[in-house]
Every structure is written in C-alpha cells, then in structure tokens.
C-alpha cells in the first residue's frame, strides 16, 4: 500500500508536488479546508486518512500522545533554518532512507544535527 502523508499547515505547498512525484499520496491541511484546527483534530484527521503526519509543530513530539494515537507515524522537523529550501534538502535526505522511515509506526524528530526515532511496539497501546 502506498505511503500516505498529511502535511500540517505550517509546511509549504511545494512539498505536495515533490512528495507526489516520489509516488506518495499527499494531503495538506490547508488544501483540505482545515486551517486552524487544533492538534487533536490533526491527529484524528491523520488517523482517518491513514496518513503519516509531517509537521514543524513541536507539540507533536509528545511521546505519550503519539503512543495513545492510531496515527501511522509522525515526522517533526525542528530546524533552526526555517527557509523552505533548507526544509526541502532535509526532507530529500530523510527520504533516501524511506525504507526504514516508513517500515514501522514511529515518531521521528529531525533537528539540525540528528534524526531520532521512537518506534511504537505492540505493548505501547
């Protein structure tokens, strides 16, 4: 089954095209008419759509909330350089390892120096 990705409203629209060209099914909060929804609603939307969530919102790095959810996975970008070009480079580097990225439900935190992953196990729920 193809990977489905929900882009949070804090991510640029250009990611839609880039990710779709790589074969992903991609949704954007704004294009769905859901701008301004609360984080709980973002979780629910990602669960309903069967999507991974890509976001810059640090609130989504909350491990307990992730473990209680049924979301496919979350990638939180915590980059000091907020320019779209820096984000695009980081995402392209991350997707070079897409086999391991999307192989399990996990919380992925990407900052300037490292990528941290926390995989959900059967015992986490």
Summarize model confidence as the mean pLDDT: 92
Radius of gyration: 13 Å
CATH architect. name: 3-Layer(aba) Sandwich
Tell me about the biggest sheet? 6 strands, mixed
CATH class: Alpha Beta
Which structural category do the helix and sheet elements fall into?
A: alpha/beta
CATH topology: Rossmann fold
Spatial ordering of strands, largest sheet: 2-1-3-4-5-6
Domain tally? 1
In one word, what is the shape? globular
What is the ordering of alpha helices and beta strands?
EHEHEHEHHEE
Could you tell me the strand content as a percent range? Answer: 15-25%
Number of E-type strands: 6
Report the span from N to C terminus: 24 Å
The helix fraction, in percent, is 25-40%
- How many H/I helices? 5
Unreliable spans:
none
Explain what the structure shows.
The protein is of the alpha/beta class and 125 residues long. It has a single domain (4-124), classed as Rossmann fold (3-Layer(aba) Sandwich). It contains 5 helices and 6 strands; from the N terminus they run βαβαβαβααββ. The protein has helices at 14-21, 39-49, 63-68, 84-95, 98-101; strands at 4-7, 25-28, 52-55, 73-78, 106-111, 115-119. The chain has a 6-stranded mixed sheet with strand order 2-1-3-4-5-6, sandwiched between helices. The longest helix has 12 residues, at 84-95. It is globular, with a radius of gyration of 13 Å. It starts with a strand and ends in a 6-residue tail after the last strand.
């Amino acid at each position: 089954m193809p990977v489905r990705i929900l882009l949070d409203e804090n991510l640029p629209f250009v990611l839609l095209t880039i990710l779709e060209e790589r074969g992903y099914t991609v949704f954007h909060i704004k294009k769905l008419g859901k701008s301004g929804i609360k984080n709980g609603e973002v979780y629910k939307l990602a669960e309903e759509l069967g999507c991974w969530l890509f976001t810059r919102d640090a609130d989504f790095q909350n491990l307990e909330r992730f473990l209680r959810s049924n979301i496919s996975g979350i990638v939180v970008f915590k980059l000091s350089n907020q320019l779209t070009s820096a984000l695009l480079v980081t995402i392209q580097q991350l997707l070079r390892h897409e086999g391991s990225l999307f192989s399990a439900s996990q919380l992925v935190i990407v900052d300037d120096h490292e990528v941290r992953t926390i995989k959900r196990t059967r015992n986490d729920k």
